[in-house]
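INFO batch 0412 | record 1 of 1 | parsing
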Amino acid sequence: MGGIKGIILDKDGTLFRYGDVWGPVLSEAIAEGLIKAKMPEERKNECISDFCRVVGVDSEGNTYPDGVIFRHDKLFLATIRILRITFRYHMNPWRVWKSVKRILNHEGFGIKERLAEMDFPDERATIKALHDKGYILGIVTTDTTESTEIFLNKMGIKEYISFLRTKDSEIHQKPNPEAIKEFCREYGLDSSEVAVIGDTVVDMEFGRQGKAGYTIAVLTGSGDKERLAECADAVYPALSDIQKDPILFP
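INFO prediction complete | emitting tokens
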């Protein structure tokens, strides 16, 4: 593990705390979607709470590891959970599905307005420190290119990122390792010289399937410490804590 030269990072939940940024935005979108789906007014709070848990985040910034936003590999099971809620509250299934699709695609949200109120000094300093150590840095995310670039610009780290793959890229999504292979080809690296940093089990599986030399999990996304510890080489509370990592910062 001592020969790491390139690092691939996830975006949401890795570069920043997922609940702080997306919690209020997604919970508002959930409420709007459920209103359109004709949720019962007298059970509104209960219905929104149940749905937030299935999605994975609520308005208070709490995250739920089994939520669909963190477990894209469990989409079928999430669909069953969503259908149960739909039938339990006698809602319009088509409108519920449209709401879920919008949430997963991050469509039409006021994320620029939310980001305008935020700053990311610790995360920016950490990415700069990795760049200054000579690591080639890449981002692989299931978010769109447009949304990702909004974040990178706002966080002040775009200049440090050499490689970007999003849901708009013509590659298979994580945990398929195609992005790691492209990263290695582009920069002449062996996969053993690549570290993967992410916040979900899917990110760690992405690293494993891509034969990455080192995997790091952070707890600012799904927060699933027990499960992440089983599949990552190292686990840290937040991205800034990796500056204490003996492999990346010997």
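INFO post-check: The chain has two domains: 6-16+120-244, 19-113.
INFO record closed
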